[in-house]
Design a protein that fits this description.
The structure holds two protein chains of two kinds. Chain A starts with 26 loop residues before the first helix and ends with a helix. Chain A is mainly α. In chain A, strand 1 and strand 2 form a beta hairpin. By secondary structure, chain B is of the alpha/beta class. Chain B has two domains: 212 residues, P-loop containing nucleotide triphosphate hydrolases (Rossmann fold); 63 residues, Alpha-Beta Plaits, CATH 3.30.70.920. Chain B has eleven helices and 13 strands. In chain B, the strands form three sheets. Chain B has a six-stranded mixed beta sheet, sandwiched between helices. In chain B, strands 11-12-10-13 form a four-stranded antiparallel beta sheet, sandwiched between helices. In chain B, helix 3 packs across helix 4 and helix 8 crosses helix 11. The relative contact order of chain B is 0.14. The chains are: A mainly alpha, B alpha/beta. Chains A and B meet through helix 1 and helix 5 of A and helix 2 and helix 3 of B. The complex binds adenosine-5'-triphosphate and magnesium ion. The site of magnesium ion (MG) has 4 residues of chain B, from helix 1. Chain A: Belongs to the ABC-2 integral membrane protein family. Chain A: InterPro entries: ABC2_TM (IPR013525), ABC2_TM_bact-type (IPR047817), ABC_2_transport (IPR000412), Nod_factor_ABC_transporter (IPR051784). Chain A: GO terms for molecular function: ABC-type transporter activity. Chain A: Keywords: Antibiotic resistance, Cell membrane, Membrane, Transmembrane, Transmembrane helix, Transport.
């Protein structure tokens, strides 16, 4: 049964590794658990996450597209309305998935399913849990992005192989949102407060040059929208979809690099508040 | 193995744990007793490093669990008061996945999980969903899970609540054997017989403070008499008759359902009760137990 301890005091060394209090380099165990749990679930959640942007694309791209006709693409050449909104919908779906996974999902597993309480009584530290959960969210995001890009290809909306870069870049966008989402969740105490997340996301979805160009707004509002992350995601994917790159591309990408760095830093600083009561 | 000095945990203005100190040497079975809300679970969570203390010192195996949580917990097994099994995984996977959190290899975890399922008498439920288990079965699985990493310290927060008598005795047997093997046990329970059987030493906690400390026998000696006379006069009369019993024995404890008279010689006390012309419905002389100590130290607030 038990190997038997000679009943003497055990004194541990005490690692001096940075983050030793929060991290045990075992996020892969959290990831393995997530994959196992997904495999034994019915997969319905996975399917709905895939269909939502596809349905938007079909209804608005084909339906509204018939009314709108063609628009100027990022490089000035005209493109179909469906080709215009498709990259934007991909950015929105990356945002929604990442935010859902890092806010509602984390909040639920923390406070109701008590999943993290179990994990945190093991060698895992809060940073292992956070990294594992973010990785799982990004993996799911990559699956959705691949599915959506395939639908775009089937609809004839892909004109260049460069457009395939939308898949990894949408994962970067998701990473930005997920790292921030988790930091924000650490401030939340009740479900009512969580509703604020939706309150911020919906207008961002509707107004971030998703369905029409930014130029329809007055200058002041344009600046405001340009400060929001989703607009950068939309523009970035739209440029990639037609392989039209410029200095703005780097700015959009840089926005997300900084967002990820700040988000992860904030999440790490807030880990004790998030996971240890 | 564990040393706490003036350990405190405040929630806002409320002091859940209010400056408790204790030391637990390796291989000891140490009990935390106390009424609901005394701060036992809060203390357990601080030992596990999943709750941050407000003040005081705490070292586990020489380390502060807040600064070295993962290292400390590698040697800890925890049975929380409320089961937190992974409802999305099957029974055996719960054990395997939990072992993976400790970074243990599959070659070890496979046979270990089977051994623990056997111990928890859940072998035939190995591939069932956790939802499909009864309350007591979940409790057994939680206990089995806490042993997956062969811990040096086992934290058991009311481990036997919800277990049937047979399962409870199987657990007691296991805990005895773990203790023999040198595992340090920290236990909370509301079953005084359990505390008396399992604990080498215990503290009684109330309102976040330690009221008494010692071995079960020592506590009984210090805080109770050798014998107790239990009298029942019927639920209406128990409290009114108490006044007429004054002076018999060393101390009187009127409870809602009975009156306890603490005396060195219970039979003599009973004779005196009869001599005063009082006729209880039932009477019983028994030896003092830990329950009497507990009631004395913490129970009076229920009566006053
Ligand atoms: N997260 C929290 N926020 C505020 N108060 C809390 C919190 N957790 C516990 N408390 C309070 O701290 C006190 C001690 O709680 P604790 O769970 O440690 O009691 P306990 O001794 O384990 O009781 P029981 O025997 O009922 O399990 C209680 O009054 C409880 O209300
Ligand atoms: Mg408790």
């Amino acid at each position: 049964m038990t190997t038997g301890f000679p009943g003497r005091e055990l004194r541990l060394e005490g690692s001096t590794r940075p983050l030793a209090a929060l991290y045990s380099r075992n996020a892969k165990a959290v990831i393995a658990r997530g994959l196992l749990a997904t495999r034994s679930s019915n997969g319905l959640v996975l399917v709905s996450g895939f269909f939502e942007p596809v349905l938007y694309l079909l209804s608005m791209g084909i339906g509204l597209g018939a009314l709108v006709g063609e628009l100027d693409g990022p490089d000035g050449r005209p493109i179909s309305y469906a080709a215009y909104i498709a990259p934007a919908l991909l950015a929105v779906s990356a945002m929604n998935g990442a935010v859902y996974d890092s806010t509602w999902n984390v909040f639920f597993k923390m406070n109701f399913a008590k999943l993290y309480q179990g994990m945190l009584y093991t060698s895992l530290g809060p940073l292992d849990v956070a990294i594992g959960e973010i990785f799982l969210a990004l993996l799911r995001g990559a699956l959705y992005a691949t599915g959506f890009t395939t639908v775009m290809a089937l609809m004839g909306l892909l004109t260049t192989p460069v457009a395939l870069l939308m898949i990894p870049v949408s994962v970067v966008i998701a990473f930005g949102f997920a790292s921030f989402g988790m930091a924000i969740t650490s401030f939340m105490k009740t479900f009512q407060q969580m509703e604020w997340v939706n309150f911020v996301m919906l207008p961002m979805f509707l107004f971030s040059a998703t369905f029409y160009p930014l130029s329809v707004y007055p200058q002041g509002i344009q600046w405001f929208i340009q400060a929001l992350p989703l607009w950068h995601g939309v523009e970035l994917l739209r440029q990639i979809s037609v392989a039209s790159f410029g200095p703005a591309t780097l700015i959009h990408l840089g926005y997300f690099v900084i967002m990820i760095a700040v988000g992860m830093l904030l999440t790490t600083l807030r880990l004790r508040k998030l996971f240890l009561k | 193995m564990i040393s706490a000095q003036r350990l405190s945990k405040h929630y806002g203005d409320f002091r859940a744990v209010d400056g408790i100190s204790f030391d637990v040497p390796a291989g000891e079975a140490f009990g935390l007793l106390g009424p609901n809300g005394a701060g036992k679970s809060t203390t357990m969570r601080m030992i596990g490093g999943v709750s941050q203390r407000t003040s005081g010192q705490l070292t586990i195996m020489g380390l502060d669990p807040e600064e070295h949580g993962p290292e400390v917990r590698a040697h800890l097994g925890v049975v929380p008061q409320q089961d937190n099994l992974d409802e999305e995984l099957r029974v055996r996977d719960n054990l395997i996945v939990y072992g993976r959190y400790f970074g243990l290899p599959m070659s070890y975890l496979g046979p270990k999980a089977d051994e623990l399922l056997e111990f928890a008498q859940l072998t035939d439920k190995a591939s069932a969903k956790v939802d499909a288990l009864s309350g007591g079965m979940k409790r057994r699985l939680t206990i089995a899970r806490s042993l997956i990493n062969e811990p040096r310290i086992l934290l058991l927060d009311e481990p036997t609540t919800g277990l049937d008598p047979q399962a409870r005795h199987i657990l007691w047997d296991r805990l005895f054997r773990l203790k023999e093997a040198g595992v340090t046990l920290i236990l909370t329970t509301h079953y005084m017989d359990e505390a008396e059987q399992l604990c080498d030493r215990l503290v009684v906690v109330d309102k976040g403070q330690i009221m008494a400390e010692g071995s079960p026998a020592q506590l009984i000696r210090d805080h109770s008499t050798r014998e107790v006379l239990e009298l029942r006069f019927g639920s209406e009369r128990n409290t009114t008759v108490a006044a007429e019993l004054q002076g018999i024995g060393e101390r009187l404890e009127p409870l809602p359902d009975r009156v306890l008279i603490y005396a060195r010689d219970g039979e003599a006390a009973l004779e005196e009760v009869s001599a005063r012309g009082l006729k209880p419905l039932t009477s019983l002389v028994r030896r003092s137990s830990l329950e009497d100590v507990f009631l004395r130290l913490t129970g009076r607030s229920l009566v006053d």
